[in-house]
Amino acid sequence: MLSRSLSTALRRIRITPARFCTSVASSEQGNSGCDPLYAGIRATQFVNKPALITPEDYAPIPVYRVMDAEGNVLDSSQDPNLSKETVQKCFRDMVTINALDKIMYESQRQGRISFYMTNFGEEASHIGSASALSNEDLVWAQYREAGVLLWRGWTLSQFIDQLYGNCDDEGRGKQMPCHYGSKKLNFVTISSTLATQIPQAVGSAYVLKRKPNNDRVVVVYFGDGAASEGDFHAALNFAATLECPVIFFVRNNGYAISTPVREQYRGDGIASRGTGYGMAVLRVDGTDMLAVHNGTKLAREYCLKNNKPIILESMQYRLGHHSTSDDSSAYRPTEELEIWNTVENPINKLKNYMLKKGWFNEDEENEFVKSIRKQIMAQNQVSEKKQKPDWREMFYDVYDDLPLNLRKQLKEMEDHVASHKEQYPLKNFKS
Q1: 85 an active-site residue?
Q2: Which residue, 108, 242, 296, 363, is most buried by CB atoms nearer than 10 A?
Q3: 323 catalytic per annotation
Q4: Which of 112-116, 284-288, 383-387, 397-401 is predicted least confidently?
Q5: Choosing from 28, 106, 367, 414, which is the catalytic residue?
Q6: Catalytic member of 7, 27, 228, 323
């Protein structure tokens, strides 16, 4: 018979003594048929023998794909049936990013810009995701999502002006190259510090959630290396418990700088971590533009309908070096690159799909490639010759009103420059 104090406590948590007794009694017989009453776990059952769960007990999360390497749609119901014009834009944006990468990488090697990061092999994840989002959705990127900006309308001049940090750079020369941002295009300026954008994205998603009739989601991009940071785990727990409409778009490209994924983690990729946090997950073939498009569209619909987060893991391969500060030949074989640069190349796959549709004209596309290369090279020369922003810009745009300590520093700098004009290339800076 239950004591009066225990009976009272059970009534307070709305559990009847009868249910509690049945659960305990039957579990002692080896078959509960009833959920344990612990607050810290989801509904489950008692067992009378220890159940050790190992990673091998779980099947890996499957990878969703729409087409094979030859461009064949594997299940006709999964073809998104995008218009010819949309597919052509997707293809040409992927080609444009590829051409921009080649030319600007060489520019860095020539000493014309200080730093660059290429997107080789990952173009499908940019364009596939961007084409499935609304341009009003808020993007928090890492530093390998240039295609998202291109899809939304950022111009070649805006890209290249930022790389040179000249007077027409929207960041006014305050960011490293490749650290793009556009308030107009709902693309938050990239930060070098790894993974800081992930909890920030969750916070902005929570703001959107609280708005009546919200029709926007937040998308935060990051790599598999960033998923090893504490910010990643804090963000997932925050998003899951507060149920925020955010897509965690992880680019699992095989390497975190020079560290292969097999040395980063032992679990089933990154998406598997979402289950532990109580989140939905989806894994797609990141070399398949159509699969990324469909996956992102599904993820966005899920977020808006349920006001909940989701992890979308895009499986792809980084063909280029991590950055111009890296030499990937030191840690991976050329044979590995070859298969990803040919059979599994995302641009080739989409080209094959277009060929089967009768939408690809070799001569037209060759002319497009020549044209876009000429545009990039011409803009490169123009942007390189532009003046740098006024050096006083370094003091502004952090505070609405310049505080006293910065006003003093600005005055000291002005006096110093005025006294030593011959030591500074002032003609290179806009005044």
Answers
A1: no
A2: 296
A3: yes
A4: 397-401
A5: 106
A6: 323
